[in-house]
Design goal:
single chain; 332 residues; alpha/beta; Quinone Oxidoreductase, Chain A, domain 1; Rossmann fold; 2 domains; 7-stranded mixed beta sheet; 6-stranded parallel beta sheet; 10 helices; 28% helix; globular; binds zinc ion
């Protein structure tokens, strides 16, 4: 089969690879119809992910059709995190924290290929009429949905009343802005340094966006909820500056993790700091339904390219040349 392989740092090679194999009878083989490029794939491409070592087939934001067995002909997206189902976290419904988890595009071959295998328990069916490209947005959109639900559970006031700052206008920031709008949050604003992405946020999420490098954007201690969808030392500092007393700061992105958190403000102002990681199966199912119902808009900001041209997509994202926060690759 053809696959886009991360062959070295800053190198993606479209080449022949051995056919994907099922590791057990509980697995299915999917013909991949669409697969998104994730920030974490970019991280691996840059050689910054010790868990993803070349040569490796990356890609975990997949949609495809089963080509064998019981589910033959059915279309699915799904959970790239393969949880054990029996550890303490799995039985609590917190499969994203599973102690024995593995992951497609990391511990086993991913979806930048014509075919990929995955356990059937990870699959979420795609509704009739939903395009493969839209279905491939499920994983990043579910990350935003999960983070939003974590914030909602903690916020003293309903989120519709809250002033919300989203830091980062990449895919997660974009999905967050779209979701906040759909939830009826009027006081949301996005901080993003790339002018192309700011334009895209304003146009598609109809949300105010500012450049944090040249504008203050939000008043100090004014935001009830801050989503840091970048997760760098700079953005954490900015988030803590923006957060209001009693506010909720949600850490979603993880670009680096050395930190000087203002523990004085955290303590005296009773700020809640929440770390969020990926999504559960329930989040993924809810996200497929939300995407299908249009809760994330028409997704026309998403760019499609052939998998065979995947290498140039990575280069464009690397050089900040793509206006779109999400490129979806099509294997056929
Ligand atoms: Zn992803
Ligand atoms: Zn588990």
């Amino acid at each position: 089969m053809k696959a886009l392989v991360n062959t070295a740092t800053l190198e993606m090679t479209f080449r022949d690879e051995p056919m994907a194999v099922r590791l057990s009878d509980d697995e299915v083989c999917l013909r991949i119809d669409a697969v998104g490029i994730c920030g974490s794939d970019m991280h691996a491409y840059h050689g910054h992910d010790p868990r993803r070592i070349p040569p490796i087939i990356l890609g975990h934001e997949f949609a495809g059709e089963v080509v064998d067995g019981t589910y033959l002909g059915k279309r699915f997206t799904g959970n790239p995190l393969i949880a054990c189902g029996v550890c303490d976290y799995c039985v609590q419904g917190r499969s994203n924290l599973c102690s024995n988890r593995s992951m497609v595009g990391m511990t086993r071959p991913g979806a930048y290929a014509e075919f990929m295998t995955i356990p059937a328990k990870c699959l979420v069916e795609i509704p009739t009429g939903m395009s493969a490209t839209r279905a491939a947005l499920t994983e990043p959109a579910a990350t935003a949905l999960h983070a939003l639900h974590m914030a909602q559970r903690t916020s003293v006031r309903p989120i519709q009343e809250c002033r919300v700052l989203v830091i980062g206008g990449g895919a997660i920031g974009m999905f967050m802005a779209l979701l906040l709008r759909n939830y009826g949050v009027r006081g949301a604003v996005v901080a993003e340094t790339n002018p192309l992405r700011r334009k895209s946020i304003v146009r598609h999420a109809e949300t105010r966006a500012f450049d944090p490098l040249s504008e203050s954007g939000v008043t100090e201690s004014s935001c009830d909820i801050v989503f840091d969808c970048v997760g760098s030392k700079h953005t954490r500092t900015a988030a803590f500056k923006a957060i209001r007393h009693g506010g909720v700061m949600v850490h979603v992105g993880l670009q680096d993790w050395s930190s000087d958190i203002d523990m004085r403000k955290l303590t005296l102002a009773e700020i809640t700091l929440i770390g969020t990681y990926t999504y559960t199966m329930a989040d993924l199912r809810a996200t497929v339904a939300a995407l299908h119902e249009g809760a994330f808009g028409d997704c026309s900001w998403v760019e499609e390219r052939p998998l065979a041209d995947g290498s140039s997509a990575f280069t464009d994202l690397h050089e900040g040349k793509s206006a779109s926060a999400k490129i979806v690759l099509l294997p056929h």
